[in-house]
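Hey, resending since the last one bounced:
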Amino acid sequence: MKIAALADIHSNYQALITVLDHVDRWKPDLVIVLGDIINRGPRSRECLHLIQGKEITDSWQLIQGNHEQYVLNFDDPDAPKAGPQYETLKIIHWTYQSLSPEDIQAVKEMPLAVDIQLPNNQVLKAVHASLGGIRVGIYPKTSPEEIIALIDPGANLFLVGHTHQPLVRRVNETLVVNAGSIGLPFDGDTRAGYAQITFQNDQWHGKIIRIEYDLNAAIEDFYTTQFIPRGGPLAKLVLTELKIAWPQLSHWFKRYEESVLNHKISIEEAVTRYLENPNYE
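The structure tokens again:
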């Protein structure tokens, strides 16, 4: 049996179409998309529609991620629409505005987990991050003892994403696979990634596939879609993440969020200062 696990597309259409071509040629029996299809990138609508098409034609399984939830927060009429807090969320609001009401409803209907009894009497469980929560990830540095508390030990195969850092690790009787990220890897490797999982000799085996794609076209999408500048100053940090394959937003928030919210510095100036000394660790 062959299973493909895709995660964290983050609106990177150029990476997605390249990975989908690779997946189609591999011909898996089952494909699971582990959330964060949309947001933190410029082409959410196109990525969502492409994945929805595969859901219809090839029975792909979709899971909601934390970025789907972030976007759904703007479906609340009381969500902020101005002020410093809004400016830190402007990327998300830009994504929300790019989607139709039908798109939003489809995102709402995505499940938080997939549980499948496979034909070989094996049990597969898939969530976006872990059983610890939709933002509690399993990283390469996570110890086996910590992983046990974050997975379903009754599953033979446990699939996750969220961290943008791939791993394949066997924990007792469970093969744990973090598929990494298609659209925004955070391991210093700009290539798109996904996981291929096979069942051979009564055991699951996982492999992370990395694929070159048209990164320059993905960068151009930030401008042709108007994500920069209409997504606000933080869109520049997302572009930096794409170029260096390393997280920036989380480090910016640690350095500057409090000062921006307390009107001590503008968000524009905070982003300019950050980009003078971005994070590479």
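The mean pLDDT is 97.

Sorry for the duplicate.
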